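Hey,
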Amino acid sequence: MWWKRRTWMQHLAFGIGVGVASLLVLPLIPIDGPEWGAGAVLVFVGVVWGALALRGMLDPADAGLALACLGILGGIELMALTGGSGGPADMARGMWSAPWALWLGLAAAVGLTVGGVKIRRTVVLGCGAAGVVVFAAEAVTDVFGSGIGAPVALIGVGIVILLVAVMGFRRSRARGAKAIPMVSEIAGYVGTAFLAAGGVALVAGFWEEIGVFGRVAVPAIGTVAAYTAGTFIDRIDDQPARRLAQMLLGTGIVATAVTAAMAANPIAVHVLGTPTAAEIDYVGTWTALSGGVAGTLAGGITWWLRKGGITLLAFSGAVFMTTQLAFELAAPDTLDFWIPGVVVLAVGLTWVALGATERLTPSNMALAFGSFTTISGLMMLQNTNQGEPQAWAAWLGIAASVAAIAGSIPLRRGVLLGFGAAGVVMFTLQSVLSFFEGQIAAPILLLVAGVVFIGMAVLVAVLLPKVRSHSRSGSMPAV
């Protein structure tokens, strides 16, 4: 299939098959070798695959390079998991049998990151950066163990890398270097990942040890770091800088919500008293609602000042969470009934309308969030606390999905088309299974519907070129 149709999907299927076969054939070879040999074989296959892709022998080259990076990094991870002798010393190390492989993986990830910059291949750069995050986090955990030093080290490394990213953008603006923005952007993503992972691990794993002050201070530090770096980088008129700034500002919105929730928790306990087992959820809802309100305010202000996809997504998510929690707090016994579903549906339709009229920008992000929320509201309407699926909600979901598909044509919005198609499939499946529960008609109807949709796709693929040719020749109006 890849030889006939050299596309991404065929290439991925072909390459994954080769990688799996290379591992499964090892037990059939009557030669003893080290435990980490399987990982080394996968690394070797990845290196060969990447070399062939760079030589133009495995098209598309980006697909081959992606598989090569996964093979190299995945093989080294396999070496780390299986590279020990299985003795007491290896058992004492915990998860990794061969810690040396973690440092080898970190070196390989850094090499891929640098190589991706040199050959100007974003896929290699991205895989290398992801590998740096994974192997560095594992190496730090191996060094510091399960103590508090591991998350603190991750936070420190994240702040340092984030400072390096900021300085890199500053240097690129001063010298006009073209390669520096790409490296600085990846460094910013890596630093933010370390900062977030360390903060979550510190608060979740050492809740009692760090106390109330520590629970508030950790996300507050993340808020300050994200907003400071994001605001500075956003001033640079460069596409990589704007992408990183959006991600940092979105992280700042989330960190603000977490900070408010951590601060509200002891206040709620003080006002309401020490909660019993039955009241823990009630106090937790108050705490989360405080975070949602703070995230909504911070997200709204941030999006208004720095409009972008990530800031809009963070702001929209905060609005959604706040709405949900408010109704859960007001009417916990009717959470699964129709009122919350109607509210969520109203929020989704509002976001779709604001996105379609360009009131919320970027409009595609608003449409995506609104479509997702609309589907979620319809799902809530269908699954009520009465114990039986509501068929009318499924039919309403099908109607809304068809309307999204129809609206995507005049609006020329592919995001509406995608969510509409997903909604049609989802609600049609649920309607059929609900109506014909336990009957053979359900799978038969699903098979028929699948054949019909595939036939429609083939028909459109065949007729569309003819329609376009007639449209260009002037024999029929443009479609």
